[in-house]
């Protein structure tokens, strides 16, 4: 699994351990019962954690107890009959195409960082990459001749993703005219996007770049790198793209994950009815 997933799972078990210590329970992870776990879930609920966070923590604990079963350290899984809180499918924020254009045009191209940032955000929107896939993108995996990127996604799965002409143009300018002047640190030669010290960018840095741009144009939305991915998928589907094709480009394991984008734009759906239905 990715480093982030491992860190989250370890954190879930640590929370359970803290609860055991705080509650002065005379139990170990091997002797915990479903009753203890219900108490733990009630505890994190009272702390004000969202239903989504509670469900994610329970998922981490279920994985932990599956591991203990496989290792034959326990005979019975105490999480087996525990159900998490019901969580609705939250529709992600998206940007309209004019908002995307406004954000991109707000980047100062007279600076090296501006040229790099324009290339990054063009790629994010053009290809729907996850932020982790963007920071890990390597130059040998950019195929300018055919307009594709080879992306290493979740679970180390590879996929080929097409890139738009504008994104390729700004990417080429960045690589050939800006990146060549960066003093590259050892071990970072192949990474496409580098900071001014010659190391690969972090996810946090990309969040900060976008946050500053949003503030610059006075946009009243909560925007993250993932918003570009959501917008990419939404705009494709609104334009009539095949759901299977979008699933392939996003690297979704299941088509149901992609289907969330078909429910996004209520105004768009209403407009379709008004324009094309004979009795609208």
How is this structure best described in words?
The protein has 280 residues and is mainly α. It folds into 2 domains: 3-70, no CATH class; 97-271, Orthogonal Bundle (hpI Integrase, Chain A). 54% of the residues lie in helices and 4% in strands. The chain contains 12 helices and 3 strands; from the N terminus they run ααααααβββαααααα. It has helices at residues 3-22, 34-46, 51-70, 97-105, 112-127, 131-135, 165-178, 203-217, 225-238, 243-250, 255-259, 266-276, and strands at residues 142-143, 148-152, 158-162. A 3-stranded antiparallel β-sheet has the order 1-2-3. α5 packs antiparallel against α7 and α5 (112-127) packs across α9.
Keywords:
mainly alpha; hpI Integrase, Chain A; 3-stranded antiparallel β-sheet; 280 residues; globular
Short description:
Helices cover 54% and strands 4% of the residues.
């Amino acid at each position: 699994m990715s480093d982030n997933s491992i860190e989250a799972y370890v954190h879930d078990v640590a929370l359970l351990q803290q609860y055991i210590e705080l509650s002065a329970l005379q139990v170990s992870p091997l002797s915990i019962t479903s009753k203890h776990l219900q108490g733990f879930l009630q505890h994190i609920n009272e702390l004000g954690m969202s239903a989504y966070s509670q469900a994610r923590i329970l998922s981490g604990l279920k994985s932990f107890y599956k591991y203990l079963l496989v290792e034959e350290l326990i005979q019975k899984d105490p999480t087996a009959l525990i159900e998490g809180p019901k969580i609705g499918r939250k529709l992600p924020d998206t940007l309209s195409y004019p908002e995307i254009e406004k954000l991109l045009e707000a980047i100062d191209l007279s600076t090296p960082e501006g040229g790099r940032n324009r290339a990054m955000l063009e790629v994010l929107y053009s290809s729907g990459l996850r932020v982790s896939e963007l920071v890990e993108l390597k130059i040998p995996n950019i195929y300018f001749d055919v307009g594709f990127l080879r992306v290493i996604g979740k679970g180390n799965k590879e996929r080929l993703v097409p890139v738009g002409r504008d994104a390729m143009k700004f990417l080429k300018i960045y690589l050939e005219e800006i990146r060549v002047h960066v003093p590259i640190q050892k071990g970072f030669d192949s990474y496409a996007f580098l900071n001014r010290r010659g190391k690969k960018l972090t996810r946090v840095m990309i969040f900060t770049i976008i946050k500053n741009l949003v503030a610059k144009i006075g946009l009243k939305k909560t925007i993250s790198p993932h918003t570009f991915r959501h917008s990419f998928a939404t705009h494709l589907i609104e334009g009539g793209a095949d759901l299977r094709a979008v699933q392939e480009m996003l690297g979704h394991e299941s088509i149901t994950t992609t289907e969330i984008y078909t429910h996004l734009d209520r105004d768009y759906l209403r407009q379709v009815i008004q324009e094309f239905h004979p009795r609208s």
